[in-house]
Design brief:
This protein is mostly helical. It is built from eight helices and no strands.
């Protein structure tokens, strides 16, 4: 009997698991401790490295998003830009799902299995990390667009 939800543990697609782990950058300042929650451990071991790896893609996706929304982002004050980023990730379901896909696509099968067991809590952590990452690079978001316009 075939069950589509059941993943084959021995499924090997050109050693995808090890390839994904190999290309992830190390994040030295975030450690794991025995008393950490599963979500916090997943955040530090999986989400942060995947976010760092996908950072150029996240920036390009946000610039594309801002441009498709008539470039309003570039006319805003710094404070309003921060709010715009939070609103884009938090309230625009289509953009949010695209960003989630960019990150989840970098999970190993084991990480994905863990993710689907805790997706609600992990989605919240993931989107908060994306918001902070984009807000921390808000100047880069503006400079990227200016340099392409010149």
């Amino acid at each position: 009997m075939h069950n589509a939800v059941n993943f084959n543990k021995n499924f090997n697609m050109n050693d995808r698991h090890n390839d994904l782990l190999r290309i992830r950058p190390e994040i030295k300042k975030h450690q794991t401790f025995a008393n950490m929650s599963d979500e916090e451990r997943f955040q530090n071991n999986t989400l942060r490295p995947v976010l760092k790896l996908q950072n150029p893609l996240l920036i390009a996706a946000f610039i594309n998003y801002a441009n498709k929304h008539k470039g309003v982002f570039y006319t805003l004050s710094l404070e309003k830009r921060m709010q715009y980023i939070e609103t884009a990730i938090g309230k625009d379901q289509k953009f949010r799902n695209a960003v989630k896909g960019m990150l989840i696509g970098q999970f190993t099968v084991e990480e994905y299995k863990h993710y689907i067991q805790n997706s609600s809590k992990l989605n919240k952590r993931m989107m908060n990390l994306v918001i902070v990452r984009l807000q921390d690079q808000v100047q880069l978001l503006v400079n990227e667009t200016v340099s392409k316009a010149v």
